[in-house]
Design brief:
The complex is a heterodimer of chains A (about 450) and B (about 475). Chain A has 9 helices and 17 strands. With about 450 residues, chain A is α+β, with helices and mostly antiparallel strands. Chain A has 3 domains: about 100 residues, RNA polymerase II/Efflux pump adaptor protein, barrel-sandwich hybrid domain (OB fold (Dihydrolipoamide Acetyltransferase, E2P)); about 70 residues, E3-binding domain (Dihydrolipoamide Transferase), CATH 4.10.320.10; about 220 residues, Chloramphenicol Acetyltransferase (2-Layer Sandwich). In chain A, the strands form 4 sheets. In chain A, strands 9, 12, 13, 14, 15, 16 and 17 form a 7-stranded mixed beta sheet that branches. A 4-stranded antiparallel beta sheet of chain A has the order 1-8-6-3, with no helix packed on it. In chain A, strand 4 and strand 5 form a beta hairpin. Chain B has 3 domains: about 210 residues, FAD/NAD(P)-binding domain (3-Layer(bba) Sandwich), CATH 3.50.50; about 110 residues, FAD/NAD(P)-binding domain; about 110 residues, 2-Layer Sandwich (Enolase-like, domain 1). In chain B, strands 1, 2, 3, 4, 5, 6 and 17 form a 7-stranded mixed beta sheet that branches. In chain B, helix 3 packs parallel to helix 6. Chain B is globular, with a radius of gyration of 24 Å. The chains are: A alpha+beta (about 450), B alpha/beta (about 475). Chains A and B meet through strand 1, helix 1 and helix 2 of A and helix 6, strand 12, strand 16, strand 19 and helix 9 of B.
Chain lengths: ~450, ~475
Amino acid sequence: MGMFQFKLPDIGEGMHEGEIVKWHVKPGDQVEEDQVLLEVQNDKAVVELPSPVSGTVKEVLVEEGTVATVGQVLVVFEVAGEGNAAEGGADFKAEHNEVKDNAATGGAAEQVQKADSPVPAASGPAQAPQAAATVAAGGTADVLATPAVRKLAREKGINIRQMRGTGRHGQVTREDVLAFATGGAPAEEAAPSPAAEAAAAPEAGGLEERVPLRGIRKVIANAMTKSVYTAPHVTIMDEADVTKLVEFRTQLKPLAEKRGAKLTYLPFIVKALVAAVKQFPVLNASVDDERSEIVYKKYYNIGIATNTENGLIVPVVKDADRKSMLDIAREIADLAARGREGKLSAPEMKGSTVTISNIGSAGGMFFTPVINWPEVAILGIGRISDKPVVRDGQVVPGKVLALSLSFDHRIIDGATAQNAVNKIKELLENPQLLVMEV
Amino acid sequence: MVVGEVTHERDVLVIGAGPGGYVAAIRAAQLGKKVTIVDKQYVGGVCLNVGCIPSKALITAAHHYETMTGSADMGITAEGVKLDFAKVQAWKAGIVNKLTGGVKSLLAGNKVEFVSGEAFFTGPDEVRVAGEYEGARYKFKDCIIATGSRPFELKNLPFGGRILSSTEALSLPEVPKTMIVVGGGYIGVELGQTYAKFGTKVTILEGSPSILPGFEEEASKLVVKNLKKLGIDIVTEAMAQGAKQTDQDVTVTFTADGKEQQLTAEYVLVTVGRKPNTDELGLDVIGLETNPRGLLDVDAQSRTKMPHIYAIGDIVPGPALAHKASYEGKVAAEAIAGLPSAVDYKAIPAVVFSDPEIASVGLSEKEAKAAGRSVVTGKFPYAANGRALSMNAVDGFVKLVAEKETGLVIGALVAGAEASNLIAELGLAIEMGAVLEDLALTIHAHPTLGEIVMETAEGALGQAIHQINR
């Protein structure tokens, strides 16, 4: 009998971790090969992981609801024959075959030359000639490209991982590499840009620095490009006299604090937006391009665009229509804090139906926010400024909030959008009304 | 510095002239470097002198001997077939000489200087080479360590006398009547089976539940069947405890089935793995540490923690295989020359020259599933292939592992005649990103074993012609 450790495999989309959504087995269960063991959520979907072996579940090491990283041992089986784990926990590497001689004495401790990772991680300072930066980053053997093309990419100083292959099954071809090298090429998901040619690698002479577009920055880049090239954006801008709201919030703030919530203006705006999109459902929709259908959503998940050191992320307040203002306040604070620490799980950052982008905290006023595609509307919040307002024919000092609403003109007409903005304005200007919407 | 020692200055110093080192030296020289290669023993290393090549010579000789006396099915009976083992050994030595001579002239032709002696680091850019009579110092800009590995020695069965490592087992003056092989990995099986074919009564003691533990059972069981046919006793889950030698024989004590047992034979061959040669180089002098397995960790250009010192082959992680060493040697030499080369393979083939041969490349079905890949497999028997039948080689199969969704070939296992050659096509398929249809739609000559590969791919697609598709 041997022990077999099942580690979280790379579940695709470049995810390094996944949330264990559900276990289908428990210790003591008999498991057949290919039987579903558990469900893991990655960036895009919930994936069922089948068992690679038949055996008995000895131990489940990761609980439901927790986030596991790729390579982490999730479950240990007792299997017939050789397992992949010595009792002492010898590492199992599935990457390649090994030819090994087994000690007939002494035990595993004396066994040498077990297979190891074929491309060891770069260790130590690798001062190297020119292209070493891309080279030292590690092998690229997992990229779908022939050896000659992988070599060509190294010679051109290109990280082939960042390329989108145009060949069969997404294979990166020689032409892809050459085009990429001259700047005219499709990087992953990026839209073709005729202007790119002109920008191709000028003589920089140290006056330029090239930094690979990676990680969250790349995700943002792709998302923005996709949105702008898909949805014809129109932005309408308006001002709301929020004098009463400011007073109201000032009153409520200490009360909220007693109940453990820091009350900002955002929860009010979330509620106002929910009320507006309930009245104008087309703002809480998306377009299914493939089937040419508008998808109206009967749930209200509000994305809150949040600035972090690494870049923009959009955590989601789910079912905002069914939560109290205080709950929303707490949730936003928690999501934002964990977002800045990079500790949000993928499900906490998706599923939004309409989004709020707040530039006011940085001091701005009107702007043209980019829709969080596939949503169709985004509400931009500017700063609240002291301004003269006319009330009952009198010019008086007021608190004025700048609002910008970008919408997808394919399905939302200007008047509808303006009516929605009017509704938001009405609620923010008269917080008593807002209370009735809660 | 010792008085009288000369210091030489070189661009590149390669330590070890095995299949990793000599290839690295030649490539570095081709790229315009002034190269010296040092080896304490042989040009060509273990592989050419006491490993891959001589063992294959003996395996082939044993195979011929066996078929001469075992081809009655084909209507061939031979009488008076004689084995002149001294002649076999001489023939083998001739092959080794031819190849090592070839490497020497390649080195010379590329203006690579060969120095015989043992290298020891005396500083971060200097080694002392102790030759038989004299020493010299070599300063280098870059160094490639390619010192390989040696047979792993068991404390309770130390090499010497009648306790042999693979090295001595390849050079026995005559065929022993009896032999015990401790360790049923690929070396033990290859040599044990070879001597059994020459007439030795062989017993294999293996620590794990089956021989060839690194390979899948569906392949290794074909070998087990043939070993048993040759009268080889296989004792699994056996632990050798010690050995006593006399003038004529050696008695091994081992435990198996919970009992202590003894077995006597003319020789005991110990093949329990290989140990990296990193312990006698003075690595500590320059502050280069090995990992707990005695291996040097390297980056994707085979560079150690010290940017001008590279390590390749059996002394770095990965399987201890000559072809991997050669590949890494080229990468290291090119990196030294400033080229953007990298260790960047998708798969390394592994071959056991047993009878029948076993060869694999890429992921096994089990490994692929463990990695969470959704796979489809195909398996086609030699018994349904015309050429296999006409070669009297019906035992065997080709198995392919491919991604279910795309058909991308990610692994292959071949057991049977010429598996060692058939695996080349499958390694290429994996590197090129071929899908099952590519293999299925490539015309393979008839009648050849290569058709099995094509039919296996068709089978995985559910459309094999010479097999009923389920």
